[in-house]
Amino acid sequence: MFRYFTVMKIVIFEDENYINFFPLTIIRPIYELKIGFHPVFKHICDFFSSEAILYTRDYLCNIVKLRNKSFKVNFIDDHDVLLINGRLIPKNDVLNFIKSLSVEKDSFIISDLSGGIVAAKLKYYLLEHVISNSINGIINSNILRGLHGKCDFIQLNEHVLLENIWDLITLNEDFLKADFKSSGLIGELDDKTVVYGSKSNIYVGANSKIEGYVNIDVRGGPVYIGSGVKIFGPCRIEGPAYIGDETIILAGARIRAGSNIGNTCRVGGEVEASILHGYVNMYHPSFIGHSYVGEWVNLGAFTVTSDLKNTYGNIRVKIGNNIVDTGLNKLGSFIGDHVKTSINCGIFAGKRIGVFSHLIGYVYEDVPSFTIYAKTLINKSYELKLESALETMRRVYSRRGKTLSNEEVELVKYLFKASEDERIEAGVLKGELIL
Fold first, then answer.
1. Sheet holding 371-374, edge to edge
2. Residues whose CB falls within 8 Å of the CB of residue 3, separated by 6 or more in sequence, listed in order
3. N or C: which end of the chain has fewer CB within 10 A?
4. This prediction's pTM
């Protein structure tokens, strides 16, 4: 007798390792981080063509509901669900494996080579046990591992979960190639636009306009340009690359291979092998290389992220209290949401910049959230006042026709208080910064 995969509800959850992806996951669940064209959860939902329930930290619940209005959040109302870790690297082979097991078995748990839980299909009483023992919306891997012997336990011999924050950068280029499904020139392509390679590797969405003297090189991979995009000449775009809806690429820009630029960005400098999440303003010449930049970040003129040491040695990143060798000699910065940089700001390789921070001068260490960092000028950093963070947020939103929601205000207030110990430990001062 044949068994078929029946559409079941997918529960995409966060485990305890979300903290290793700070600052990118301070303000969003790990499964909302982008690899290729889409956030992780969108890859998973598209593959299974299934309704999904998003499970996240309690303090993010309302903001996730606001951003994903068609999804249920932290509410499981069905016994027949498939738990999938939000750290899953959403490649088709592992998704197919999970899908086939869902057909063959009534219950199972899959772990990868690191011991992390990849997915689980559980009988109702076991699912109830897992959910009731989740703390603050986090489904702890140890709870799932504790079910060993109560359902089939499958150990994979490979890593299929995001383990390190820099995995997002190293995996991005392959996903940009894999996610390009079809070509098409729906928008306007000026006669003087130069294409190197086959136009079958270009997609230009509706109401997009590409001026003359824009060079698009698709010999190394495809270029996807969304809807309502404006690209001013002269500039150069190298594939693989993704440019989201309503984004503007300004004259003189260089969009190099592996660039993943989100919706409603303004880019006038050089981007290489980096992810710009959305609403990033980089209007003037700057350089972002092998980096991940969160939403609503403003990069002042001539902001530079270093992505190569003078010694050409491996970049090291601070994770918790440990300094970790990434094994990479090309790696930039990880910049949280709502960060603002001054003109001529330089960020050393491998640094993590907390949300709502303001950077002045050279940045040679990690920066806590809500910090005005000015150590190369005055050897001090000051706390950014909560009222200032909210007022700046309102002003920036108004420039894009958006209004600050009550949910966002409450989240910012929570994050300001929750990050206080981090600032104290880093020696961040209270008071007024005077230059």
1. 188-189, 209-210, 230-231, 248-249, 266-267, 281-282, 298-299, 340-341, 358-359, 371-374, 380-383
2. 103, 104
3. N
4. 0.93
Q: Are strands 259-263 and 34-35 parallel, antiparallel or unpaired?
A: unpaired
183 plus 138 within the same structural domain = no
Q: Is residue 150 part of a domain?
A: yes
Smallest CA-to-CA distance from 335 within 314, 310, 359 is with 359
pLDDT in tens, the chain (435 residues): 334 445 578 899 999 999 999 999 999 999 999 999 999 999 999 998 877 899 999 999 999 999 998 888 888 876 778 999 999 999 999 999 999 888 888 889 999 998 899 999 988 888 888 888 888 999 988 888 888 888 888 899 999 999 999 999 999 999 999 999 988 999 999 999 999 999 999 999 999 999 999 999 999 999 999 999 999 999 999 999 999 999 999 999 999 999 999 999 999 999 999 999 999 999 999 999 999 999 999 999 999 999 999 999 999 999 988 999 999 999 999 999 999 999 999 999 999 999 999 999 999 999 999 999 999 888 899 999 999 999 999 999 999 989 999 999 999 999 999 999 999 999 999 988 776
Angle at 114 between CA 112 and CA 119, to 5 degrees: 30
- Tell me which of 163, 187, 203 is where a domain ends: 163
Q: Are residues 137 and 268 in the same domain?
A: no
Specify the DSSP class assigned to residue 60: G
CATH, residue 258:
2.160.10.10
* 226, 307: one domain: yes
**Token pair belonging to 258:** 């592996």
Look up residue 259 and give its amino acid.
Answer: S
Number of separate domains in the chain: 2
Q: Which domain holds residue 369?
A: 168-425
89 plus 130 within the same structural domain: yes
